[in-house]
Amino acid sequence: MLVKDLSGKGIEGVYAFKETSLAYDECGNVFEWGAKTNGRHNIELSYSLGEKINKIERGNHHYCALTNHTRLFVWGRMEYHEATIFNEPKPFEPKLIKPAQFSCGSNYVLVVDASGELWGIGSNQYGQLASPGSKFFKEMTKINTNKIGRLSRVFCVFECSFMQTMEEELYFCGRHSYNSND
Fold it and tell me: Does residue 18 have a pLDDT over 60?
């Protein structure tokens, strides 16, 4: 079946999620459609990031995109008492964070920057942001990983996070982790 609305637009990636789908083109335009796009079933331009997209991921109700210029954009709702992070894509200032890799959990995002530091935003209800105390980060926050060292990658699954160090040690935190009671 031909998808007329996206034909000839230079589509570089397509993602299908439970209730929505999205595609992005070579210019950083993001197109969404499906049941959870304010009732839209037609394919429409939702956002223009203005830069070529390298990677995009989705949590429960939020998206995160990394561009070729290593700018990170986050938008949507991350739930912890129905908090909205950003309705429109918000870039994080490159002076603040130079993202190398990221992963979306159900209601949060973890980012490893170019120097191996960990950053997070969203729900920390189960400790999935590897930071004791705070239950929700409204802003991208640097997370102390001095005890485990510099990181190379993060992997987020629902409310559980895995962090790989430069020495390839794998750590985890959050709900349903090895020492968790639930």
Answer: yes
Contacts with 134 (C-beta within 8 Å, 6 or more apart), sequence order = 124
Look up tokens 């997370």; give the residue. 143
The pTM for the full model equals 0.82
Q: Judge whether residue 97 has pLDDT over 80.
A: no
Phi and psi at residue 125, to the nearest 5°? -55, -35
| pLDDT of 85 strictly over 70 | no
- The string of pLDDT tens digits covering residues 129-181 is 998 877 888 888 899 999 999 999 999 998 999 999 999 999 999 987 555 44
Going from the C-alpha of 85 to that of each of 2, 154, 169, the distances in angstroms are: 35, 21, 32
**Distance between CA atoms of residues 140 and 75, nearest Å:** 12
Closest CA to 61 of 97, 101, 109: 109
